[in-house]
Every structure is written in C-alpha cells, then in structure tokens.
Amino acid sequence: MNRLMKAEWLRVRKSSHFTIWIIGICLLLNWMTVINVMPDAEKSGSSLLIMSLDTMFMLISAVLPALTACMVGIHFSNKTAYYEVMAGDKISHIIFSKLVVIGLGVGALFGIVYVGIQAGFCIAYGVGEFDDLALRLALVVIIFLHLSLLGVVIGTALKHVIAPVLGYMKVMMLDSIFMLILSLIFEDSVMEKISGWFITSQFSMICMHEISNTLVLQIIASAIIDVALWYVLSYIGYKHKTFAK
C-alpha cells in the first residue's frame, strides 16, 4: 500500500503539466472571487464566502472532478496503470492509493488555498455576518474533497481519458436532471429537505441558510455514499477487465 502511494505520488509529481494545471486552476478560481468582492464597501470574510460560492460554485463543481478524473484517465490511456495489476497488487489497494494521493491531495490543496484566502479576509476586514463562518468553511472543504474523490473513482471506473467528461456530466447534468425530476414529483417544502443531498444545492445552502445538523449530515453522507457507489463500480470494473500491454 505504501509503495503504491509513493509510486502514485512520484507519477503525479513528475507530470509537470498536472502540477501546473492544478495550481493554475486553483489560483484562478480564487482570484476571480477576490477581484469581484474587492469593490464591495462592506468587505468581510462572510461577504467573500457568499461571493465565492455564488461566483465559482458552477466552475468548481465542473472542473474539480474533471481534473482528478483526467489525472487517473491518462494513467490508463498510457497503459502505465496496467503494471499495478500485473504486479499482483490488490485492487482495493490500487484504488485507495489513487484516492489518497490524487483525491485527497487535490481536494486538500483547493481547500487550503480557499480557507487561507478566507482567513486573510477575516483578519483584514473582520468575520462579518456569519458567527459560524468556520463551520461553513469546513463544509465547503468537505464538498471540495467530495468532488475531488468523485473524479478519481469515476476515472478508475471508466479507465479512459474520456473520464473527465463523465466527471463533468455527473455533477453538472445528471444531478441537475435528477433534481428537476424530483421537483416535478414533490412539493417545494419536500424539495427544501432533500436538496441538501446534491452538490450544486449544497453550495447555495451554505451561504444562504442557517447551518442545521441535517445539512451537515447530508453533506457528509452524500460524499460518502457517492464515492462508495463509484468505488464499487470501479472495483467491479477492475475484476472484469483483462489487462494486457
């Protein structure tokens, strides 16, 4: 397991284009938020949170899973991933190593940069209207990790460079279509209770609603269920795929 994670880390570190894309996208998305909120006369950590989730939630929901899925998909397209199976490594260990190095690594990087900018604003301009800003930021980081890990297991499930397309479609299209179908079936009062299970709704609820225990549970549980489901599909795919040079 430790050997696999070291090998995965080395592969990512040696792929300079991955590093450039990750850092570039991370800084760009956060910079877009900062320049939008700077002209605001009432700048604060809370106003930056609201502006950032309003400005970049669509982009981050699409880009983050697509990015990590691409990092995994290229590994399979180049056929370098086949050697892990041929070496006799357990499938669970192979997937887990990618989840830790790529999924947690990229998600944590985005979260650290985001929280760092928020902390700077709080120091410079104050916290603002949200007394529970730290909790809201923690929930945003959990969603970042959800998106990043989701891209990894989608990549290992498809085992192809086209994985980023499904990573984008899953969050931006399939979830939206499912929510639309539910909205036609249930009343608004019911939709308010179940919308917290969907990533695109979670961002808006964090900056517009009181943070309830139910919302916290929905954000954490949806991440676990989503990643676990795609993990199972990925594991089954490994079991039934013939690996050859």
Mean pLDDT: 78
Helices and strands, in order, run as HHHHHHHHHH
Query: Count the helices. How many?
Result: 10
Please count the beta strands (DSSP E, at least 2 residues each).
0
The termini sit apart by 23 Å
Range of helix content:
over 70%
What is the makeup of the main sheet? none
- Tally of structural domains: 1
Structural class by secondary-structure content: mainly alpha
Keywords:
globular; mainly alpha; 245 residues; single chain
Report what the structure shows.
- The protein is an all-alpha fold.
- It has one domain.
- The chain contains 10 helices and no strands.
- It has helices at about 1-15, 15-35, 45-75, 80-85, 90-125, 135-160, 165-185, 190-195, 200-210, 215-240.
- The protein starts with a helix and ends in a 5-residue tail after the last helix.
Short description:
The chain is mostly helical. The protein has ten helices and no strands.
Helices and strands in order, then pairings?
Elements: H1 2-14, H2 16-37, H3 45-77, H4 82-86, H5 91-125, H6 133-158, H7 163-185, H8 188-194, H9 199-208, H10 213-240
